[in-house]
Write a structure and sequence with these properties.
By secondary structure, the chain is α+β, with helices and mostly antiparallel strands. Helix 5 (87-100) crosses helix 7.
């Protein structure tokens, strides 16, 4: 209609005698001619003619165009000027607001318009270039710009240095030479970017600078996700690296000598003079290295330093290098990549003729920097290179078997030098980081930190901290290398630990106390007898995956040792009660009674962890219900050693009970010899008010009679029983239907109708996903069915987190959106849909991090009771193994992937079977005409058609009087799989559900099992095997 109005206006102008446009449509308001209608409408929507066109009925988007940009930011946190008014970040938002034309949360332009360098509208502000038209109307009034300072940040703003969700454990606000801030903001023409930055800097304190603004970047740019490496420098005195005597004779090193460009053997640290020969040879004729004798000493010392730094490169567990982060070695956050660790140039950079440089930069390129990590890396490198600590200390510090204090240089000289981005964005951002403004800021920042480095704090640290503690650290490393107990003095205790002994002398107690001690001893003896019987009887339960991660592997029964661990009592929802309640009822009762004797004033615990012959690694308690309750531990048996270490304090727990905060204090077991059992009483969050003895004796049974009812968790309380012909029990006790209805490619009313037919046919499980774009229709059909059948079966709903929703925060937000679309408060099963991030190459290392962070989100939802079960989809055995290696706490309960007689991925199936992961098959009839293989072959590789028409399938169908589809689904059922076939045909939907009343003969199963060797056999759908 608008087009007709405009063209009509032009025609009217022609009829009235006015000059018509030269060619093509023209603007009736200004008379300018355009070559196409598209150009005309572009002119009408962004010119001085816009308001007049809008009055004539043209729909105009009045919002300003935005672009995704990167700002190069320099800052010195902690300065009073920047700190006033909310810190340097708040100051930064205020400066950006000033550049945008906003102040104090409101626009400064008249009539609500935001004034800026491009005029009131943000466009060219004028009319058309042609003359003769009517005068333009009043300028278009756009919505006011929102103040970034008022809202606490710009839309989509993220700093490149904040690399993970473990932000609380990352390095605090260190100074930044070239930080990169990505954000979505208004478009600024190239010619005006410098002026934009100048306006921002005029409003910023001198400790915060915007050093450049990029052009508009692709929407895929995320400053944190697209940053490959963060490069940090630590400035240290050269004398600290070389020693006073060598440093006194040292001149500046030639450029490139210390940056790792040579290729010396990694064993330099064991034979420094030999390894340094390359350095000596290169520097033999260079007078800047000084006289011959001192030259050799200088070069050998730098070679030794370089060798130590190289040993810190690669992937390591750096829990001991970040004491403030309080990490345990099995936590994923402790596993960090150090891509490069080198001694760089002198600061300020040497002049051409070798002026002595008193300060050097030790540079590290990392994935993310933990609190104190670089100071500890530099401290260890200095201590080893100077010979204060033995070479073996580094192995001890990187070991997962203990916590120790490592040397750390003083704070105050670490800064973020630059960030390295993916190739797609590197070429846009690198010139900005090397601009004159950026280089000048970097030099200014270095000058400030050099003053700190030369203030004497490093010399004080070396003489008063490193040297006095070196002998204790050396002893601990030596004990570690011998396999002996480490010295408890290697790590000073943090805080006091409440303890109470059950073995005090009877002479010090009155008669009542003596009697109490005798009762404790008697019950301890009885508990030990029952523990030995359980061990010798061969019924000791298997260890959970979460607990397995924190026990030294070679002490576990599964790895040839004698160790094991299980749990008594109750578990928080949605978990079921431990099976050991039924296995050892008398042991459970006696163990809970023992707690009341040991600590009569202690509230009775709900749960006991029972450990045998297990050496625990440093950890804090986690898993189901983590976060509440003081733990009580007691050691039993005939053993020596085996003390419990709590934050560095060694505690003898053999027949001596000890209370400690297992959720917050890191603790581990020292090596031991002999028979060692331990009991740990605790109450997880969610089990308050459920004392173990009460739980064991609840609802009609005494544990002495062998009865132990399961604790009613969320699944049991909130969910009525499922009415299906066959179900499978997931880990945790939930019963999931074996047969479900898949909704892939079903949309709108067709989806609603198909789901309704499926529910009428007896399906109790409906599978959907956010990427299917049909969760509203699925939810509406299920809710309507449940309303019409209030006493009927409960419907199991499962959905998936797509590859566009991966990451901790994104996944949690996606889950909330899924619940809203489905109209549910709790979901039965939530699944990671695909093992890779969308639009990333399959070989990208980002996929593994994304899988880990997304799974952490699902674990948190599971613990909160928002979802009853969690799983994955399209994960291979390799992807699942990586999840385990990355320290997950809950093993996936379901893996949904393609399975049918033509495709049977044995390795993945074996991993799932070994780890109690239920397999749910999609495309159980083979990929249909819409599968990847079928589309690639123009329908020739239609797996459903090939399988349904196979002679062996047809023969089995004929012998049972069934359809070929029913035979294939029955094969999956008898093979132990769950399945989610899809159809929109009501007849086929009902037919697919009728598979529980017949059985394939063993010979028929064997014939169908052999189809994976058929020439037509292949994977028809998406292939995740190439995903890193």
């Amino acid at each position: 209609a608008v087009l007709l109005n405009v063209v009509g206006s032009v025609g009217g102008a022609m009829m009235s005698g006015e000059a018509p446009p030269a060619s093509g449509p023209g603007c009736v308001h200004c008379g300018e001619a355009f070559g196409s209608k598209n150009l005309l409408f572009k002119h009408l929507r962004a010119s001085g003619c816009t308001d007049a066109a809008a009055k004539n009925g043209l729909k105009v988007d009045q919002s300003e165009p935005l672009e995704r940009v990167a700002l190069i930011v320099g800052c010195i946190p902690g300065d009073d000027a920047a700190a006033s008014g909310g810190g340097w970040r708040a100051a930064l938002w205020r400066g950006i607001d000033a550049a945008r034309g906003c102040a104090d949360g409101a626009d400064v332009g008249a009539a609500g318009a935001c004034t800026g360098p491009t005029g009131p509208t943000g466009g060219d502000g004028g009319g058309g270039s042609g003359g003769g038209g009517s005068a333009p109307s009043a300028p278009l009034h756009r919505p006011p710009r929102e103040s970034y300072a008022a809202r606490g940040g710009a839309p989509g703003a993220v700093f490149a240095s904040e690399a993970t969700k473990e932000v609380a454990r990352l390095a605090p606000d260190v100074p930044r030479a070239c930080e990169v801030l990505g954000l979505l903001t208004e478009v600024v023409p190239e010619a005006e970017r410098a002026a934009w930055c100048a306006r921002a800097n005029a409003a910023l304190p001198p400790t915060v600078r915007i050093l450049g603004r990029s052009e508009g970047l692709a929407n895929s740019f995320q400053a944190d996700a697209c940053c490959l490496r963060r490069c940090y420098d630590c400035l240290v005195p050269s004398a600290l690296l070389l020693g006073d005597e060598i440093a006194a004779a040292a001149s500046a090193a030639p450029a490139g000598l210390l940056d790792g460009s040579d290729e010396e053997d990694e064993s330099m640290v064991q034979a420094a003079p030999v390894a340094a020969s390359g350095h000596v040879k290169r520097g033999a004729g260079d007078p800047r290295w000084g006289p011959g004798a001192s030259r050799t000493a200088i070069l050998e010392q730098y070679a030794r330093l370089k060798a130590v730094m190289r040993r810190l490169e690669g992937e390591h567990r750096l829990h001991n290098f970040a004491p403030a982060a309080r990490l345990s070695p099995h936590e994923g956050a402790s596993r960090r990549w150090v891509y490069r660790f080198r001694a760089g140039d002198g600061v300020p950079k040497e002049e051409p003729h070798g002026v002595s440089s008193p300060v050097r930069a030790l540079s590290a390129a990392v994935d993310a920097l933990l609190v104190g990590q670089l100071q500890s890396m530099v401290g260890v490198a200095v201590a080893l290179a100077r010979g204060c600590l033995p070479d073996g200390f580094l192995d001890y510090a990187l070991s997962e078997q203990g916590l120790t204090r490592v040397p750390a240089v003083p704070e105050g000289t670490v800064f973020l030098d630059r960030c390295i981005f993916t190739k797609q964005f590197h070429y846009f951002l690198q010139p900005l980081m090397e601009s004159p403004d950026a280089l000048a800021w970097r030099a200014h920042l270095q000058d400030l930190l050099v003053a700190r480095a030369r203030s004497g704090v490093f010399e004080t640290w070396f003489n008063e901290e490193l040297l006095p503690s070196a002998h204790l650290l050396t002893e601990a490393a030596a004990a570690f290398s011998r396999g002996a107990r480490p010295s408890p003095q290697a790590m000073p205790a943090e805080g006091s630990i409440a303890r109470a002994g059950a073995g005090a002398s009877a002479s010090e107690k009155d008669e009542e106390e003596v009697e109490k001690v005798e009762r404790v001893a008697k019950v301890c003896a009885e508990v030990l007898r029952l523990l030995r019987a359980a061990d010798e009887g061969g019924r000791w339960p298997g260890i959970s995956k979460g607990r397995e991660k924190v026990i030294k592997s070679d002490t576990l029964r599964e790895n040839g040792g004698a160790g094991g661990s299980f749990t008594f009592g109750s578990m928080p929802p949605p978990l079921e009660a431990p099976g050991a309640n039924r296995l050892f009822p008398e042991l459970a009762r006696r163990a809970f009674e023992l707690e009341t004797l040991l600590r009569p004033d202690r509230p009775p615990s709900s749960t006991i962890a029972v450990n045998k012959h297990a050496q625990f690694l440093p950890h804090v308690d986690s898993g189901a219900g983590a976060g509440q309750g003081i733990s009580l531990i007691l050691g039993l048996g005939d053993y020596t050693g085996g003390e419990l270490v709590v934050e560095g304090e060694v505690c003898d727990i053999r027949y001596r009970s000890l209370e400690f905060n297992g959720w917050a204090q890191r603790h581990w077991t020292l090596p031991f010899e002999g028979e060692r059992f331990s009991l740990v009483w605790f109450t997880p969050r969610g089990c308050e008010g459920l004392p173990g003895l009460s739980v064991l004796a609840a609802e009609g049974g005494d544990p002495r009679d062998g009865f132990s009812p399961p604790v009613r968790g969320l699944a049991a309380v909130d969910a009525p029983p499922l009415a299906v012909s066959e179900t499978v029990q997931l880990r945790g006790g939930l019963a999931m239907p074996r047969l479900g209805f898949g909704s892939f490619q079903l949309k709108g009313a067709d989806c609603d109708s198909a789901v309704t037919h499926a529910l009428e046919a007896g399906y109790c499980l409906v599978d959907t996903a956010s990427i299917y774009k049909n969760e509203e229709a699925v939810g509406a059909a299920v809710r309507r069915w449940e309303a019409e059948h209030p006493e009927g079966k409960r419907i199991w709903l499962e959905s998936k987190c797509s590859s566009y929703e991966m990451g901790f925060d994104h996944a949690r937000a996606a889950f909330e959106a899924t619940l809203q679309r489905l109209g549910k408060d709790v979901l039965d099963l939530y699944i990671i849909h695909w093992p890779a991030v969308a639009k990333k190459a399959h070989g990208s290392p980002e996929h593994r991090l994304a899988r880990r962070e997304t799974w952490r989100a699902l674990e948190s939802l599971y613990r909160e009771g928002r979802v009853r079960a969690i799983g994955v989809s399209n994960f291979t055995a390799s992807h699942l193994s990586q999840l385990v290696e990355d320290g997950i706490e809950v093993m996936p309960m379901v893996n949904q992937f393609e399975v049918h007689p033509y495709f049977v991925p044995r390795e993945t199936l074996e991993f799932c079977a070994a780890n109690a992961i239920v397999v749910q098959a999609y495309s159980p009839l083979g990929g249909g005409p819409g599968s990847n293989a079928a589309r690639a072959t123009e329908g020739a590789a239609n797996g459903t058609r090939l399988l349904l028409g196979h002679a062996l399938v047809l023969a089995a169908a004929s012998s049972h009087g069934r359809s070929p589809a029913q035979v294939l689904l029955r094969w999956a059922l008898q093979s132990g799989f769950c399945m989610v076939p899809r159809s929109s045909n009501p007849v086929r939907i009902a037919e697919n559900a009728q598979i529980f009343d017949f059985e394939l003969a063993p010979a028929q199963m064997a014939e169908l099992d052999s189809l994976h060797r058929d020439s037509a056999a292949q994977k028809f759908c998406w292939d995740p095997s190439g995903v890193h």
